[in-house]
Structures are given as structure tokens and as C-alpha cells.
Write a structure and sequence with these properties.
474 residues; alpha/beta; Isopropylmalate Dehydrogenase; 16 helices; 15 strands; 41% helix; binds NADPH dihydro-nicotinamide-adenine-dinucleotide phosphate; binds 2-oxoglutaric acid; binds magnesium ion; NAD binding; magnesium ion binding; magnesium; NADP; EC 1.1.1.42
Length: 474
């Protein structure tokens, strides 16, 4: 069935029912080693996973690893330009859960991202990137322990989909002409705007389907968190891009207030309800006045809209959510993308789950990882309804490749997410404990070592950090 690979002789497949994995005691898990620092990260990480599973289950459970190829290694095995062989896709499809090291994407020309291709091929629509602080980790931030967020980044659309045309090509000329002479003039709100003829064009599609299935997963995750962490923040730049970024926000709220009506309250709804709780006889207009700080300056039409909003909310949910009951619900709010970057720096403790479109989530996940110790501590998962691929937030860090020096923490923590996803919590907990103890004993790789006060000299190698984690299981 496969051209150049064979699955391990022992082990069984993970299957899926209603979007959840059913995991045997000896699952077969495909892995991609990865390019660049993948050569260092994968062996160190696999050693930790195997040791944790052995320590937690004493042989009752065991992972059978299935090596599959992508990136440079695939070209060595399968031939030039065979970056993502059919064998690899078949194996991931068949076995359902996989883990991977980073893969290189050239800038400008060349192949499009293999990482993105995998997410799209398997419709892994939720890129889940938790950023939490491990005690003792050095950070440029004064209170990194307050950061405990999970980014739910939409993983299949937005500009990352890569639908774009190069400047000067026939197709882009045709497209610009069509836009300039037909589409733009026929949309009055665009006025006299025109696209420069020497432009490249990229398309940024954001769908209701893509948005709502992502936000649904974010809310479902919030339902599993302790009360004080039950907030879902929709991140967008809807003030500028109304029909993509703004629509993401609107569709997110729509989902929260329909499918999760009993479980959720929006921030604006909570203000309307609390205005009435403070003054049970408050008129609709006074309530709207408190809701909209600039109410007096609004046009009559806008004032009417605000009063109608207040009435609609009270009619719909006063019974179910009023008299403080909303405080027990998941709070759904929204923040503009640039503003959330500064708020994560200044008030990280106010946020819990951030639901984002693809590009905003890409930036935000690297930025959030920086606060909790850097990209060496940023894990991730790409989750769909019948497949999941776990991988770190960072890339191949080529200048460090093959030196056994980078921090495997991010890939190891991606494996922790995988073990949790599989329901193997005991093994996951051992690894988290090992990481925490290694860091608090200053047994760390170069990236954390240089930030520590006093700096740790010499830092541990990548492989030595894995050994330190395992040492602290006992
Ligand atoms: N999912 C994936 O496979 C991803 C792939 N990529 C691809 O990776 C390639 C390189 O991208 P680049 O922009 O350099 O970004 P990288 O994330 O690979 O590296 C940027 C910097 O982050 C730090 N860093 C990264 N990984 C680690 C680690 N494990 N431990 C400690 N520090 C780390 C290093 O900082 P310093 O040197 O300052 O210590 C490194 O130079 C590109 O081809 C890109 O497309 C990028 C992101 C994700
Ligand atoms: O695929 C790539 O090269 C980059 C991916 C990336 O930056 C990410 O997933 O965060
Ligand atoms: Mg990125």
C-alpha cells in the first residue's frame, strides 16, 4: 500500500467518533522529524514521550512510532521536489493523529508552506496554541505568571490560504482591470479608489463556516475551564476590514448567542443586564445611555438602535441570565487586534481564550510565547474533526540546526497536548512536572540560560534538557 515506508508491525489505529479520538493502548503514531532543528528536536522529544508513557503505565500503554517523510528528508527519500509524498498523506489519513517537527518554507518564490498544506489537506481548522508560564522560566515580562491564554487560530483560510498573484503577470493584469473598471466602481462605498497597476494581489477569504466551527471549539474549550478562566475573546481588525475581520467578530457572536445561548453572555449584554440589576426600574433609554458613553452625541437613528438593542437583550435573556446569573456564564467579548497585542503585555491576566483569524493568530502566538520564555516554550496543535497534527509554534531556526542546542520544550509540550488529546493525562502530567523541575533547577538550554539571572553557563544541550526532564519524573 505504501511506496517506501512500512507501518510498525505492532500497534493499532486511532479512530474517531463525533470528532473525538478513540485511542487503543498501543496506538501507531506517524511522526515527521522536520527540517533544520528538527534533527535535534525530534530525537530529544521522542525520548521524553517514551519515558513518560513507560513511567506512567509500566508497559500497559506504549506508542508505536511510524516514521513518515516531509520536507528535505522526503526529497532525499523520494526524489527532487517530493516534499510531501503521497505515502505521508496516506499514513496520516490512516492513523489520524500525528506529530511533526518544523518544516522550511522559502520566502518569495519556491514551494508554498508544507505546514499550511498539511493543515488544509486534513482540514485541521483549529490551530490551538496555549501560552502558560512554567515556574522559574526567565521572561522579559515583569509578571509572566499572569499569562495563561489559549489561542484558537483559524487554520484554513485568510491570506494564509495563499491565493495570490504576482505583479506583472497576465492574470493579475486582468484581475486589476476587472476590479478597477467593473467591481470597484459598481460598489458605491469604494468611491473612486483604484488599485495601482504594478500591484500583486492576494485574496483574503473569511467564511461564516470557517469562523463558526473555530469559535465553537474555542467555546467548548472554555466550558472545560474553571469559572474564572471562562472568557472567549474574538480578535479582529473589524474597524478596517468590515466584511472579513468584522464579519469574523459578528459570526462569532452569532454562534455564541444561538448555539451556546444558555452557556454564554456577551460583554455588551452583561452591561445591559447589570444596568438593570443596579436599577430595576431603569428605562430603556437610560440603560442605552449607560451602554453607549457617547449617547448624547448620537443621531436619533443611532439612539433608537441602542434602545432597540437594550430591549432585545432584556426580552431575550433577562429571565435566563438576569439577576447575576450571567456571572456564571462564559463571557464572550471582542478586541481589536492591535489593541490585544498591547493588552497581552500590560494586562495578560484578563484574557483566557483568544479566537483569531489566521494571520492575527500567527503573530499573536509568537508574541504570547515571548512573554512566557520564548519560542522554545510555545507548543501547538492543529485539530480537525477526524485528524490532528501536533507541532511547535516555531520554525526550523536554521542557524541552530544540527548543533544539539535549541530548546525542545515547545515540541515536547506539543507532545503533552497530544497525550492529553489521547486521554493519557498521567504521562502528560509527568512531562509537565519534569519540565517545571528542570527549569526551576536552572537546567535549561541556551535560550532560557541567557535570560536567567545570573546567566546559566554552560547551558544544557537539547538532548541534555530531555534527559533532565526525564530525571525529574521520579
Ligand atoms: N510550523 C512550522 O513548521 C513553521 C515553520 N516555519 C519556517 O521555519 C523557517 C525559519 O523561520 P524563522 O522565521 O527563522 O523562525 P523560527 O521560529 O524558526 O526561528 C526564529 C528564532 O526563534 C528562536 N527559536 C526558534 N525555535 C527555537 C527553539 N526550539 N528553541 C529556542 N529558540 C528557538 C531562535 O531565536 P534566537 O536565534 O534569537 O535564539 C530562532 O532564531 C522558515 O522557513 C519558516 O517558514 C516558521 C514557523 C512555523
Ligand atoms: O509554514 C510556515 O512556514 C510558517 C508557519 C507559521 O508561521 C505558523 O504556523 O505559525
Ligand atoms: Mg508562525
Amino acid at each position: 500500500m505504501y511506496e517506501k515506508i512500512s507501518p510498525p508491525e505492532t500497534g493499532e489505529k486511532i479512530t474517531f467518533a463525533e470528532g473525538k479520538p478513540i485511542v487503543p493502548d498501543h496506538p501507531i503514531l506517524p511522526f515527521i522529524r522536520g527540517d533544520g532543528t528538527g534533527v535535534d528536536l525530534w530525537p530529544a522529544s521522542q525520548k521524553v514521550f517514551d519515558a513518560a508513557v513507560q513511567a506512567a503505565y509500566g508497559g500497559k500503554r506504549k506508542i508505536s512510532w511510524f516514521k513518515v517523510y516531509a520536507g528535505d528528508e522526503a526529497c532525499e527519500q523520494y526524489g527532487t521536489y517530493q516534499y510531501l509524498p503521497e505515502d505521508t498523506l496516506k499514513a496520516i489519513e490512516e492513523y489520524g493523529v500525528a506529530i511533526k517537527g518544523p518544516l522550511t518554507t522559502p520566502i518569495g518564490g519556491g514551494i508554498r508552506s508544507l505546514n499550511v498544506a498539511l493543515r488544509q489537506i486534513f482540514d485541521l481548522y483549529a490551530c490551538v496554541r496555549p501560552c502558560r508560564y512554567y515556574a522559574g522560566t526567565p521572561s522579559p515580562h515583569k509578571t509572566p505568571e499572569k499569562m495563561d491564554v489559549i489561542i484558537y487560530r483559524e487554520n484554513t483560510e485568510d491570506i494564509y490560504l495563499g491565493i495570490e498573484w504576482r505583479e506583472g503577470t497576465e492574470i493579475v493584469k486582468k484581475l486589476i482591470e476587472y476590479l478597477n473598471t467593473d467591481l470597484i466602481p459598481s460598489t458605491p462605498e469604494h468611491g473612486k479608489k483604484q488599485i495601482r497597476l504594478d500591484s500583486g494581489i492576494g485574496i483574503k477569504p473569511i467564511s461564516k463556516t470557517g469562523t463558526q466551527r473555530l469559535v465553537k471549539r474555542a467555546i467548548q474549550n472554555a466550558l472545560r475551564l474553571p469559572k474564572e478562566k471562562q472568557t472567549v475573546t474574538l480578535v479582529h481588525k473589524g474597524n478596517i476590514m468590515k466584511y472579513t475581520e468584522g464579519a469574523f467578530r459578528d459570526w462569532g457572536y452569532e454562534l455564541a448567542t444561538t448555539e451556546f445561548r444558555q452557556e454564554c453572555v456577551t460583554e455588551r449584554e452583561s452591561w445591559i443586564l447589570s444596568n438593570k440589576e443596579e436599577n430595576p426600574d431603569i428605562s430603556l433609554e437610560d440603560n442605552a445611555h449607560k451602554l453607549e458613553p457617547g449617547y448624547d452625541a448620537l443621531t436619533a437613528e443611532k439612539k433608537e438602535e441602542a434602545c432597540a438593542e437594550v430591549k432585545a437583550v432584556l426580552d431575550a435573556i433577562w429571565e435566563s441570565h438576569g439577576n447575576g446569573k450571567w456571572k456564571e456564564k462564559i463571557m464572550v467579548n471582542d478586541r481589536i487586534a492591535d489593541s490585544i497585542f498591547q493588552q497581552l503585555q500590560t494586562r495578560p491576566g484578563e484574557y483566557s481564550i483568544l479566537a483569531t483569524m489566521n494571520l492575527n493568530g500567527d503573530y499573536l502566538s509568537d508574541a504570547a510565547a515571548a512573554i512566557v520564555g520564548g519560542l522554545g516554550m510555545g507548543p501547538g496543535a492543529n485539530i480537525g474533526d477526524s485528524c490532528a497534527i501536533f507541532e511547535a509554534t516555531h520554525g526550523t531556526a536554521p542557524k541552530h540546526a544540527g548543533l544539539d542546542r535549541v530548546n525542545p520544550g515547545s515540541l515536547i509540550l506539543s507532545g503533552v497536548m497530544m497525550l492529553e488529546y489521547m486521554g493519557w493525562q498521567e504521562a502528560a502530567d509527568l512531562i509537565k512536572m519534569g519540565i517545571e523541575k528542570a527549569i526551576s533547577n536552572r537546567e535549561v538550554t541556551y535560550d532560557l540560560a541567557r535570560l536567567m539571572e545570573p546567566p546559566v553557563k554552560p547551558p544544557l544541550k537539547c538532548s541534555e534538557f530531555a534527559d533532565a526532564i526525564i530525571k525529574y519524573f521520579g
